[in-house]
Amino acid sequence: MTEQFPGRVLDLLDAAGRRPVFEHAGRAVSAAELLGTVRRVTHGLRVRGIGPGDGVALRLGVSPEAFAAIVAAHVVGARVVGVRPGLTVRQRWHLLADTAFTVTDRPDGADTDRQGPGKVLALADLLVARDDGVRPTPSAGPRDIARLIHTSGSTGVPKACVQTYAAMTGAWALRPDAWPPAVRALAARLDRFLVFGTLASQVMMEYGLLALAAGGTLVTVEPPSFPDSIERHRATASVITVAGLRRLTAAQRASPADLGSLRALMVSGSPLEPGRLREASEVLGPVVFHGYGQTETGMISMATPEDEPGSLGVPPVDLEIRDTSGRPVPPGTDGELHVRTPGQSVGYWGEPALTAEVFVDGWVRTRDLGRLDPGGRLWLTGRTRDVIIVNANVYYAGPVERLLATHPSVAEAYVVGVPDDDTGEAVHAFVVPAEGRTPDLCELRALVTANLEEASAPTRLTLIREIPVTPGGKPDKRRLAAGG
User: Fold this and answer.
1) Which residue(s) pair with 338 in the sheet?
2) What is the pLDDT of residue 117?
3) Helices 31-47 and 7-16, interaxial angle, to 10°?
4) What is the pLDDT of residues 123-174, one digit of tens each?
5) Which residues form the AMP-dependent synthetase/ligase domain (predicted)?
6) Residue 11: is it exposed, middle or buried by C-beta count within 10 angstroms (0-12/13-18/19+)?
7) Kind plus residue range of the DSSP H or E element containing 42
8) Which of 37, 38, 356, 384 is the most buried (most CB within 10 A)?
9) DSSP classification of residue 456
């Protein structure tokens, strides 16, 4: 029987020995040193009575000690909640409502009055615990809750997805024998992986674990600055948003930095338009990996630099495209994606009605629209809930956005519904212009009318330099609508 998570992390660090696994603040940290730090923090948590089922919030940055604290919290079997930067006080208190402890690496527990409920533990105090040199034994059972992973909160306060220790044990990052081809191709490029923000982030931690399992080193940068951080640290890989990729591409075109070490940029958080991908590939080379997943599921599919722009590759998980009646549809037909992944959540914390709606018979309703082509490649076409209602008829935003993005004057396009006295709602398009071009509303309306329907064509157009994003890096349509 496989030992529960984080058993494989402990084994990996033990086997790596003196190999450097972190570069932080001018120092290199070996796997053996990091494992010793995990042992100390584990002991520090246990002497404070923290064990299976206890809610522990982690308000940490990126450092070897932060990584050790995350692993240690799982060793003792806690129900872990990661607190990412950029949250409002209201959102942070919502995240921490059911936690008994908050571990922070802020000096002297700074800002404790705004941390949230529960007792604040300074990471520095946990680090002075003794190291007995004995490999820690994970305490959790497979059905115990390992962590609550919160959604972006772009539609209000974040929802908490419940992930068990069994799901974390079954996830792909620490299982090289289970890596699908796209992940295996990515893993080979993670020699020096830049980490920033917080390692309590689902995306940052999972790619970080993948890098360690592939024999790589985590290189901390805070704050990140592209392309400077890549050039300075001779990084081979990093995570980047769509907006960040656009800025990096523009910076390289204007004043090229030496990015000869770069081999992989993992784009996540929002769809990457084919035109934007082609532009990035022309300037940066074949380095863009485009991951598709959800907080509820983890990774669903990943496109490599060899995949056709717009495709998300062949999903390595169970995936069905279903119609509105819940029946699977043939290849080439659009429908809603339903998936099963090894590391998926089991529901939403404290929200049984929403859990019953999204988690059905072992499948997760993604509420994304897409299709599988005859070769099994996945193409997204929109979201079931990203809709605009015109004259009582529902129009999905995704197809309109993708069509607008094909116009030569458009680099990126996003549409939202705005109140309209005549039709109830109307389509408002927010467009990032292509370099040297100025989009015209009449041309964009004609394009949509000719290919979709006149009612889904934009009646208003706003040119923007870049899309606002949520703290999780996703397009923030609420801010667009509020500003429109």
Assistant:
1) 320, 365
2) 66
3) 140
4) 999 999 999 999 999 999 999 999 999 876 544 567 899 999 999 999 999 9
5) 18-349
6) middle
7) helix 31-47
8) 38
9) G
The domains spanning 7-170 and 387-483 adopt the same CATH topology: no
DSSP E strand stretches across 73-222: 79-82, 101-104, 119-122, 145-150, 160-164, 192-195, 217-220
| Nearest partner of 322 among 353, 361, 295, 282, judged by Cα | 361
DSSP string, 52-79: TT-EEEEE--SSHHHHHHHHHHHHTT-E
Are the beta carbons of 253 and 411 closer than 8 angstroms?
A: no
Nearest to 451 by CA among 399, 414, 379: 399
Burial 110-146 (b: 16+ CB within 10 A, else e): eeeeebbebebbbbeebeebeeeeeebebbbebebbb
Strand segments (E) across 151-209: 160-164, 192-195
**Tokens matching residue 457:** 């064509």
Supply the pTM of this predicted model.
Answer: 0.84
DSSP 301-330: EEE-TTSPTT-----SSEEEEE-TTS-B--
Strands 359-360 and 363-372: antiparallel
The span from the CA of 146 to the CA of 157, in Å, is 21
pLDDT of residue 88: 66
Q: Which residue has the tokens 């193409």?
A: 379
β-strand pairing of 335-340 with 347-348: unpaired
Query: Which of 46, 73, 240 lies closest to 148, judged by CA?
Result: 73
With residue 250 as reference, give the H or E element that holds it.
helix 242-254
pLDDT tens for each residue of 252-267: 999 999 999 999 999 9
How far is residue 67's CA from residue 22's CA, in Å, rounded to a whole number?
10
Degrees (nearest 5) of the Cα angle 222, 175, 191? 40
Q: What CA–CA distance (Å, rounded) separates 394 from 386?
A: 10
Superfamily of domain 179-317+368-383: ANL, N-terminal domain (3.40.50.12780)
CATH of 387-483, one of 3.30.1360.40, 3.30.300.30, 3.40.1390.10, 3.40.50.300: 3.30.300.30
Whether the bond into 227 is cis, omega within 30 of 0: yes
Give the Cα separation of 334 and 106 in Å (integer).
48
In the CATH hierarchy, which top-level class contains the domain 7-170? Answer: alpha beta
- Strands of 20-24's sheet in order across: 27-30, 20-24, 217-220, 192-195, 237-240, 264-267, 288-294, 298-303
Residues in the chain with pLDDT values less than 50: 1, 112-113, 154-155, 484
Query: What are the residue boundaries of the structural domains of the chain, listed by start?
Result: 7-170, 179-317+368-383, 387-483
